[in-house]
Amino acid sequence: MKSGLILCGIACALVWGCSQASKAGFDHGGMQRDVPGDMHGLDIGSAIDVTVDEVQLQDKIQVFDTGKWDARTRDADTAVTDTWGAAVQDLVTDNVQDPGQASKDVGRDLGPEDVSQAEPVCTPNCQDRECGDDGCGGSCGTCNGSNMVCANHHCVHNKKHDARFIDQQVPQKLQPGQTVDVSVTMQNFGTATWTRDKMYRLGSQAPQDNTTWGTGRVELDKGEAIGPGETKKFTFQVKAPAAAGFYDFQWRMVQDGVEWFGDFTKDVKVQVGTPNVCKQARDLAGKDVDASAVLQSCIDNTPAGKVLMIPPGVYRLDHGLKVQAHAIVLTTEGKSPGDPECPFGGQGCAVLKASPAFNDQFGLLQLLKDGSAVDHIVIDGNKAARWSTNAGNQCGAGRNSYGYNMRVVCNNCSVTNSVSKDALCGTGCEVTGKRSHITIRNDTIAENGVHNRQGLWSDGLTVHDAADSVFTDNEIRDNTDVDMIFGGCQRCRIQNNKVLHTKGFTSSSFAALMIHAWPAPGGGNGTSGDYTGTVTSNNTVDCGSNHGCGIGLYLGSDAWYITDVFGGSVHDNQVKNPQQGVLLDDVHNMEVYNNPVSNPMRSCKTSCGTKACGAYGMGTRTHDVDTSKDTLGTHYTKQDWDHCIPNWWK
Questions:
Q1: Pairwise CA distance, residues 555 & 587, whole Å
Q2: How many Å apart are CA 456 and CA 450, to the nearest integer?
Q3: Mean per-residue pLDDT for 200-204?
Q4: Spatial distance between the Cα atoms of 485 and 465, rounded to a whole number of angstroms
Q5: CA 425, CA 415: separation in Å to the nearest integer?
Q6: Cα 284 to the chain's mean position, in Å?
């Protein structure tokens, strides 16, 4: 066993004033001693710390004219009053084979050859660490933002379960029955550690728990533990369905038996097999000829589960189309779900445009069969050519179903990468009835209706009562009733949508984003008003320089009718340039926080006269709203909006 004298770094400051942190090393008979490099520089009576065989001593150094040195020493337990050499002898006798050799050389002159640089006592380590200690008493950083904590040296949400979608690798096209390797990478963004034994898994979505790809769960590896802030790349094998068509590929983290949590992966629609093309319609594109019969025939004759592609171009419709014989995917020839969405003008996409004679109820396109989908299609209601027609008169009389653009009347249906514009009245897109597993994503729904003409106003997106559905990443612009309105939605995601107003009063709306409930004739709720498990977050409402929406974010219904609205979480939505910013009006058991409002009006015109407006208002029947997570210091002003419709058109 080796013994040594190692001068601690603090001795540098006491002896040399830290001009040099040097030490000398000797090896005598198996004993290693480390002492200051130039003992001639010590003053009489200087104090240093000495370690002999890892036992720290406090030594009183005596420096003589000859350069020899002596000391009086003690250890933690026993005082030693002998000279330096004797002290060393006492301490190392039991630890070295030849302690006599060690004491022979004690007291010799120290020369330059004995000097070496001191080693650092501690090296901070912040590699792969966002926060927490650096191992040396310092910090690797702190976690900023509301509801963030440091766990496992990473900044994560202060809740047990959360996950972030990082990346995925999946082919855009497969042949029926083809087997391929895919991957999905997720980050643990909560405080719990994921393990296989605790049933943390990657689970299928769209719809939830499906086995479209041969499995509905992907396991962690045995013994694997994914701590807070760490990422997991799930690599697994999938098998394409046997039937041709477009199929959703989407996943989410789950602790089975407990809850689903965190981000959904991006919904990829994978093309399986070769789609059908409606070749008969090719010669009708761009011509002033009714194409509705030809297109309807192609739709009806497309087998279930397959894709029908319509050649690009503008198609005049005298009658509405219905997907009702089989569940199919309707898209534009040459487009795949991964392509950019159709432009507002429709270039490169199939455009279904109402003729002036169009007089059917419920729009140009209806999805009536469960499992149907629309991707890369433009629906044009051609409102300017229909104001003075029978359909326009029906709208003016309050029968707004004559002005619809499209309707979704099915479960597990989707509208993606598409455009709905220029609806005559009613709505640009309606999800009607009680529906589940609806996806409205990456669409543009814009310029529907006219705000200042009786009955010609139009919602952008209208959702009656949905569950387990996704409404994300859409641009909802210049619609003229309510831009985006819901009557109930359980376990839904209403996220990352942009609601904009860019034009004058004729293109403005009563409200931008409305979470409410419709009443039924004769009393009660026509829709549930239930938003349990739903997250409405990260939406942007900008009413423009003309303050083109009456209420930016409206939670409740009382401006129109008294109904019950409850549940869910509404947070981190931005509201800019509204007349009234955020209004909580007859809601309860809802979580609301961090919805910043900028540049609201102080007063605004309503159906019952001029009212005081502002950033945040709360109706008299609102109760049990949880604002505990709010970090903005939001103050709600008591306001009564009962039967006072904002941004009134007269």
A1: 7
A2: 5
A3: 97
A4: 11
A5: 20
A6: 43
Is the pLDDT higher at 413 or at 73? Answer: 413
Per-residue confidence (pLDDT) for residue 241, from 0 to 100 = 86
Candidates 363, 341, 338, 340; CA nearest to 352 is: 363
| Token pair recorded at residue 267 | 């919904």
Residue 312 to residue 282: CA distance in whole angstroms: 8
Q: Which amino acid is at 169?
A: Q
Given a contact cutoff of 8 angstroms between Cβ atoms, the answer to whether 381 and 423 are in contact is yes
Q: Helix or strand or coil: residue 71?
A: strand
In this structure, is the dihedral angle defined by the CA atoms of residues 247, 251, 257 and 262, taken in order, positive or negative?
A: negative
Q: Are 497 and 485 in contact (CB under 8 A)?
A: no
Element at 393 (helix H, strand E): helix 390-396
**Distance between CA 356 and CA 345 in Å, rounded?**
19
- Rounded to two decimals, the pTM is 0.70
Cα–Cα distance measured from residue 146 to residue 383, given in angstroms and rounded to the nearest whole number: 46
Tens-digit pLDDT profile for residues 281-294? 999 999 999 999 99
Q: Give the model's pLDDT for residue 623.
A: 96
Separation between Cα atoms, residue 494 and residue 474, nearest integer Å: 10
| DSSP-derived pairing of the beta strands 406-408 and 565-566 | unpaired
Q: Pairing relation of β-strands 475-477 and 444-446?
A: parallel
Gap between the Cα atoms of 365 and 362, Å rounded: 8
> In the predicted model, is pLDDT for residue 321 greater than 90?
yes
pLDDT at 296 over 90: yes
pLDDT at 133: 93
Q: Answer yes or no: are the C-beta atoms of 465 and 489 closer than 8 Å.
A: yes
Contact 423, 405 (CB under 8 A): yes
If one compares 317 and 14, the residue with the highest pLDDT of the two is 317
* Three-state SS at 42: coil
d(CA 172, CA 182): 11
In one-letter notation, the amino acid at residue 393 is: N
How many CB atoms within 10 Å of residue 135?
13
Q: What is the pLDDT of residues 220-269, one digit of tens each?
A: 999 999 999 999 999 999 999 887 777 889 999 999 999 999 999 998 98
C-alpha distance from residue 3 to each of 26, 36, 83, 479 (Å): 11, 17, 18, 85
Structure tokens at 228: 């807070």
Residue pair 199/256 in contact (Cβ under 8 Å)? The answer is yes
Per the listing, tokens 């350069």 go with 67
